[in-house]
Amino acid sequence: MIILGIDTSCDDTSLALIDRDRRILAHIISSQADLHGLFGGVVPEIASRKHVELIDGIYNDVLEKAGISAGDIDLVGVTSGPGLIGSVLVGLSFAKGLCLAGNIPLIGVNHVEAHAMSIFLEREAEFPFVALVVSGGHTIILAFDAPCSFKVIGSTLDDAAGEAFDKIAKFLGLGYPGGRIIEEMARTGSPDHVAFPRPMMDDAGCNFSFSGLKTAFITYAKKHPVDASNINDVLASFQEAVCDVLVSKTFRAARQSNMERIVVGGGVAANGRLREVFLERARREGFEVMISSPLFCTDNGAMIASLASFYAAAGTCSALDIKAYSRMVMK
Predict the structure, then answer these.
(1) Taking the model in full, what pTM does it have?
(2) Does residue 147 contact residue 153 with C-beta atoms inside 8 Å?
């Protein structure tokens, strides 16, 4: 079986081909970061138009890289949501056209679930486990008891963690994407320089809130000079607060769910300091933490194809009139 995965959920156009064992035959990610960097963040209309320009060429390129033809594709998996609705529609419409023309089964994939399950591109993870998906658009904790079976046990009440990084970077005029820039600058900073708040840490639940932390940073920056002499320290302190909240809440969710395994995915999971804090805490408390490689933390077609393989094994396919959606379906 050869599975095509398509992801156009935000500003990356990505297609991948994998086999039945989830080995990657070809994988292309085309980033729009430079384009949106002019505006300090993703412009939805520009993103969707760029997907339209790119997707056909990338499709032909992955076929060529894999050394196969369109007739060799047995299944198409595509992000049907959540994401920027215009962007999602580009990939979903393209996938429907392929399936209609080639009489190929279609599986609409939940983008957040795919991030949580991306670990299976690199290793087998034993169920059950708790998964943190942390990105520019989502900060959410899922509890999986089996493939294709999960429930939401915590999510952000306002800004996502990645969104907070991007907004802080934009406020300081550092550029886009903000998370990568802040991580790089924070490497030489002191995380104890500013005692930023840890929102909702005392709350017994597993939800997040990063709007107040973002406001606390901006308030601090308006009252105190943030310049070349201290900016790395201030950013390291902000990053440490975000990491502390993400890790503490995820471990709390695992304990409350009586699970000893934690999976971490999504774009912010590529952050080196976050990975360090997760693994340090896991060693101290006896948990198993599995974090996707940075390549598979970002939006990518391989994780879409991989998750589609699980649904195909369960005998689940989507109708050609499947609809796109912009928000996470809470179940």
Answers:
(1) 0.95
(2) no
